[in-house]
Amino acid sequence: MNRRKSLLVALLCAASGSVMAQSVQDGLKDLYYGKNLSAKQTFEKVIAAKPADDKAYYYMGIAQLAMEDVAGATATFQKGLAAVPTSALLQAGMGRIDLIKGDAAAAKTKFEAATAATQGRDGDVARAIADASTEVKGGDRAYALTVMDKLLNNEGRKKKDMYTATAADYIEQGDAYRYLGGENGGKAIAAYEKALELDANNAEAVMKQGLVNYNARLKAEAVADWTKATNMDPNYAPAFNELFLFYTTPKKDQLSWEKAAEYLEKYMAIADPADKTKNEYLAASVAFFKKDYDGAIHKGQAAIPSANEFYKNKFSLLVGDAYLQKGDSLNAKKVMDDYAQAVGESKLDSSDYKLLSTIYLRLKSSDSATQAGYTDKALGYLEKFASSTTAKDPETFTQIADALKAARKFEQAADWYDKANELRVANKEQLQAIDFFNVGINYYYAGVSVSPYDTALINKSDAAFQKVIDAKPELGTGYYWRGRANFAKDPQAQSGIAKPFYDKYIEITEPLGIEKNKSTLTFAYTYELLYYYFKEDKANVQTWSDKLVAVDPNNVTVKQIKENMAAREKAPAKPAAKPAANKK
């Protein structure tokens, strides 16, 4: 399930005075606080005492889905429908299962039937449909909003048919707006505010306002919201989890293992005591984020034998990453290779591919064939990570590009830097000179790394370097690299296509200090010298020879050109050609 899942809080439903209703509410309370196993156990007791309680079956299935147990949830919904064949709520639950399995059409049929059966006025059913449509991949977010709007719109209804909204309803409406994204962010915030008007201490509403702010790249505001939620309700584990996830995200303004460990410990302190395996995983994770890698490895390996498939995956990733972080790439490889073989290729996900690619990129061998095998495998896993990741954000694409660049796969790296830029533009971010430079430099190295040079790739680099100039015209970098790109296309400097760029680069750079720009000025001066040499412009040849010798006293090009010019001057003049005889 998506970690942003709605917790489906229905605590504000009208409570009867019966013990059974209170027991259902106890299970819902556990769901709200993220105690999924305890919730499941509570609903099992409810069902045992009252086998026809469809809410107990439905929310038990939701608890199972939160624990990644799709088969168990399916069985629970089916058992519930066998006991209560007319339950619209369980019909909606089976629609969610259809979505999880990728059958959106079957899901929509069940959702429409459940809506028709309740005339769209049952809060549990509407939230069940909207939550599935919002949270599950392939769901129709616009439809989710329509369902919630229909529930909350009392216009034209008779007094007896009026629906009394709950905080949970407005949270679900806010979720639909949030997932629709873009300009709907403000509407999501407003919906969460309505939930808070009904329940001023609802930490879920505040936590989800933080998600809206995070999606809008207002990271400080997001952290403030999540912190506020933990202060409102110190037992609200999902907010601590958001803070933990924030500080484990590999972005330069987020990643902090120290803070991650801090919030993970706080989360662990209020985690579900019934879930032994999860708590073992949390303990191993705390050790990892405190950089106690041996402790993390020991705890993880001890827990793997008794863990279910879901946690075997998580423990294997943790242990493999711990070996990697402590510099033991070979053991990291062994752990992850064994895991990949055990579960099979079809069950590997983006996290698995990312770690496997990182491990294989770190492996070093003195044997060239072995090293080539490591690199190929790393890039294969990297491509699978790229195609499987749901995190379609610029920084994820940039990380992929960085790894490709490190493996000297320059053309692929340039493509991924370009894709990252396209996402930034789509997100209405202002591209910086460095964004264009990353594209250009990788296309350049891809173009000049083959023989003969690949002109098409060099042209791509040239276009990217022009964008560097457009973004930062006062910076010499774009001019210099446009010079390099055109120098590659004109290595004898006879056409002069690189000259305007080197002229501008020299104009900008020389006043900044020749000594600290020796290497780049050497390229620029060399092109200028070659250009004037082939033009047989002796005065300028001397000028640029002097400049080159000033930065590189033993410059080979200057020496060769002087020798060639001297030899040319010593060569005997050819006798004038006699005019051709006039034939009659």
Automatic annotation (TrEMBL):
Signal sequence range: 1-21
Provide the transmembrane region boundaries.
none
Keyword set, alphabetical order: Repeat, Signal, TPR repeat
- Where are the stretches annotated Disordered? 565-584
Which superkingdom heads the taxonomic lineage of this protein's source? Bacteria
Instruction: Respond yes or no to whether keyword Repeat is given for this record.
Output: yes
Biased composition annotated in UniProt, kind: Low complexity: 573-584
Please state what the protein is called: Tetratricopeptide repeat protein
